[in-house]
Design goal:
By secondary structure, this protein is mostly helical. The chain is about 75% helix and about 0% strand.
């Protein structure tokens, strides 16, 4: 960093000129307008931020002072300077007494430790402090930001199911806010948060070997990016995930293309973790095509990142095993010894991180919520009688709830058995038959000409047998075009022969198809509801669940649960 920049920074941090009366907000607004549209790490913003900080210090305006330091973090290119500004943000926030502001300040410092330095221990320490200040807050955006970052650490530790619970909550919140928020700046923040959450969910599902779900989330996230030029880094993370997925499916060329597209923005962001992961998989791609020199080049880049940053991720540990094996095979014993020592060092750091982080997460976060519940009860309990009454009421409530749950499960099981018996007899209630079995009753005249009825019947039969109803975006107009007829004729024919409208007809075909798959092919029982919806051509998880219930009298989750239980019971 240049000496002139250090002097400017020193002046920003330590220049004070206290005054008894606060200035109006307009100076802050005027100053921020001069730099708020600049890109991250653009240090041309710093002179204006220095003025902003000086103005806030002059009037002991700690709220704006904290904002000034946050802006300095965003626009400073030097990572050590970012960390120094983070400490200043915390000091200013603590003086305001604002719980949300304090939490945000601690979270910001944790993000710097995690993202810029990949120092997981101090990052988790700051996240836990942020959680303590925010967990009861009404600022749901801040609450979910903290949840997201704690989820990232849980994912790193391998607690993927726990992390997915946190990410699922965050995804629902950010997605809902995107639907209702109109302000462009807020929409940008929510979309960025949504895309980052989807990225983390993809990672968790992939590590749980739920590749189909991960692939589905990748496609959904890519489609949801409103402006790719505004979300270059988020797009690169998704392409990185897509490249890894293509590699796992042995689509090596596609994997190479996606990873190569992803790397520039990841490198630009100095995200060494995902840079190392991308290099590792590129090495595996070239090793799989016998291009060993290129493979060793990429794997040596992974080692270079580890040597410079001491960054350890479980996902790249295999890189050292590959380097050791290749050099042993090539009889390059000095290199084999070097990479063996590197692997030992890697494992030492990894084991230390996991031991510390797991203990910290368990003791200070997971138990924190239980202690909060305990303390609340203790504060509200005036004497033992009240506690006893509360316990009795809770016990009665639990017993009642269990009774309701039991009756509901019995009813669901009964509906499942009825559906199973009907499917076995091939007599599912209101099931759609192929066209040749769906003639218009002779005592009823069709409004269509006989030759037109026959033509539509033949084409619709082919449509059903070829399962073209699984196409996404299918509507009456699209189908009429496919069958070379018009929407009036097609709608009339479906109403007269099926006694339902087009939407009901299409839903019936799709649900009957997926129901049959769930009965006949066990692998579909491992799909999520989202994946099942996609499998039968329905875009919305909720719509699929509702239509499945309407037609089969049972929710898809309950159906899968009962089907798995039946299979288990049928085993000898």
């Amino acid at each position: 960093m240049k000496m002139s920049q250090l002097i400017g920074l020193w002046l920003c941090l330590f220049f004070t000129d206290a005054s008894a009366h606060a200035k109006p907000e307009s100076p802050y607004i005027a100053l921020r307008k001069k730099y708020e549209n600049l890109k991250k790490n653009d240090e041309s913003a710093l002179p204006f931020i220095c003025q902003y900080i000086t103005e806030a210090k002059k009037h002991n305006d700690y709220g704006h002072l904290a904002q000034g330091f946050k802006d300095a973090i965003f626009y400073s290119a030097d990572e050590q300077v970012k960390l120094m500004y983070a400490d200043s943000t915390i000091i200013a926030a603590l003086k305001t007494g604002d719980q949300n502001l304090i939490s945000n300040a601690y979270l910001g410092k944790g993000i710097i430790y995690y993202f810029n330095f990949k120092q997981f221990e101090p990052a988790l320490n700051e996240y836990i402090k942020a959680y303590k200040y925010i967990h009861n807050s009404k600022d749901l955006y801040q609450v979910h930001k903290v949840k997201y970052h704690i989820g990232v650490v849980k994912s790193y530790l391998g607690f993927y199911d726990d992390a997915l619970d946190l990410f699922g909550d965050c995804k629902s919140y950010f997605e809902n806010q995107l639907r209702i928020t109109k302000h462009p700046n807020l929409k940008f923040n929510y979309e960025k948060a949504y895309l980052n959450t989807m990225h983390q969910m993809i990672i968790c599902h992939r590590r749980l070997k739920q590749d189909r779900v991960a692939d589905s989330l990748i496609e959904i996230a890519l489609e949801r990016i409103s402006d790719r030029s505004m979300f270059n880094l988020e797009l690169s993370y998704l392409l990185k995930c897509k490249g890894i997925s293509e590699f796992n499916k042995s689509n090596l060329l596609a994997a190479d293309i996606d990873l190569q597209k992803a790397i520039p923005e990841i490198v630009k962001a100095k995200d060494f973790a995902w840079e190392a992961v991308a290099y590792y998989y590129l090495g595996k791609i070239y090793a799989a095509t016998d291009k060993n020199a290129e493979a060793l080049m990429y794997w040596s880049k992974v080692d270079s990142i580890f040597s410079k940053t001491a960054l350890v991720l479980p996902e790249i540990r295999g890189c050292y095993e590959d380097l050791i094996n290749v050099n042993h095979k090539n009889r390059a014993f000095k290199k084999e010894l070097y990479y063996t020592k590197q692997l030992l060092k890697f494992d030492s750091i990894l084991n230390k991180n996991f031991s510390y982080l797991s203990s910290k997460m368990h003791k200070q976060y997971d138990k924190q919520r239980l202690l909060e519940m305990k303390n609340d009860l203790e504060q509200k309990a005036f004497h033992r009688l009240i506690i006893a009454v509360v316990i009795v009421v809770l016990a009665l409530f639990i017993i009642s709830a269990l009774g309701i749950k039991y009756r509901k499960e019995k009813a669901v099981a009964s509906k499942y058995r009825m559906l199973y018996e009907k499917v076995i007899r091939n007599e599912a209630a209101n099931s759609i038959k192929y066209v040749e079995n769906s003639k218009i009753e002779e005592n009823r005249k069709s409004s269509l000409k006989p030759e037109l009825v026959e033509a539509i019947a033949e084409k619709l039969q082919s449509f059903e047998k070829q399962k073209l109803f699984l196409q996404k975006g299918l509507n009456l107009s699209v189908l009429a075009h496919m069958l070379d007829t018009n929407t009036l004729y097609l709608s009339t024919y479906i109403n007269e022969t099926r006694e339902m409208n087009f939407s009901q007809y299409l839903n019936r075909l799709r649900i009957d198809y997926i129901t049959e798959l769930l009965f006949k092919e066990k692998r579909f029982l491992n799909y999520t509801v989202e994946a099942l919806a996609e499998e039968c051509g329905m875009a919305s998880r909720q719509n699929f669940s509702d239509v499945f219930f309407e037609i089969n009298g049972i929710r898809p989750t309950d159906f899968i649960k009962n089907r798995l239980q039946q299979i288990k019971n049928d085993k000898p």
